[in-house]
Design a protein that fits this description.
The protein is of the alpha/beta class. It has helices at 52-59, 82-92, 100-103, 110-120, 125-138, 154-165, 184-201, 239-243, 266-271; strands spanning 10-21, 24-36, 41-45, 67-72, 75-76, 93-96, 172-176, 204-209, 220-225, 228-235, 250-254, 278-283, 286-291. The protein folds into two domains: 38-57 and 79-253, P-loop containing nucleotide triphosphate hydrolases (Rossmann fold, 3-Layer(aba) Sandwich); 266-293, no CATH class. The structure holds adenosine-5'-diphosphate and magnesium ion.
Amino acid sequence: MTVSGNEPYLVCSGLFKIYKVADLEVVALRGLELSVQRGEVIAVVGASGSGKSTMLNILAGYDTPSAGTVHVGRFDLLQMTNKEVVEYRRQEVGFVWQETSRNLFPYLTAYENVELPMLLTGVPAKVRKQRSNELLDLVGLGHRHAHRPAQLSGGEQQRVAIAVALANRPPLLLADEPTGELDDETAADVLALLNNVNTELGTTIVIVTHDPAISSSVGRAIAIRDGKTSTETTRSVSFERKIGGEAGEVEEYLLVDSSGSIQIPREILDELSIRRRVRVGISDGKVTLESGE
Ligand SMILES: Nc1ncnc2c1ncn2[C@@H]1O[C@H](COP(=O)(O)OP(=O)(O)O)[C@@H](O)[C@H]1O
Ligand SMILES: [Mg+2]
């Protein structure tokens, strides 16, 4: 999938989320910035507790930030009416949870699980049938359509969950640790499937994960630390070509937030003995930093 246009499809800016638990305040997001182009597959990678699920729940329209702005397509997520929230969740975004059991109704077959979101949005029966079958084929489970979740493996359940999330053809797919409960090989299959969905349907995909290995399966990986996006890694070679053996060139960047701040890695600060302040200059078109004391 080629990425087109300059206007990002998804933008989070200066995002804060503060949870109040009794007298304690937990700052889950502190000025998070994220910008995604239409048709991209990105991973947001961070340790447990770094704010990944909080960010994804806000993007899914399940939660609102304490401060900041979020735009997805034509939606301003902080200015939506209740009706628009429902429309956003049904039409714009599909969601895959880490817990395989949370994604599917246990008493419905794979086919019925995929059909359900279309029943809720009033898609005509003929279209529902065709699209459910197409989606099950896309995720490689056409032959298992009559099976219930308990009759499918964890990886197969996640495949069905992806088909369910795509039922109403959302332009955005959000996946919270979609491979967290899977073994390495099955996880690689699910990631390959997500890349295939992106290529076939043009869906923009945001995966959050604690597993740094996933960075190598996506075009761009963004590190999240303490509720803030800090660095990003881009790869010049797509996942499909990488499977073919090409390593691709990896580049790492620091992210500049909306107030112009960057977080300089501790190793660099130590090497230059930078502590409280720095002298900033420009030399040959490059910014230079030297210790201010
Ligand atoms: N509902 C909540 N109430 C209070 N604190 C929460 C809640 N949800 C998350 N947190 C806290 O916010 C921080 C980020 O959590 P989360 O977004 O779940 O991180 P991750 O998904 O990266 O593991 C953690 O410190 C967590 O304990
Ligand atoms: Mg989480």
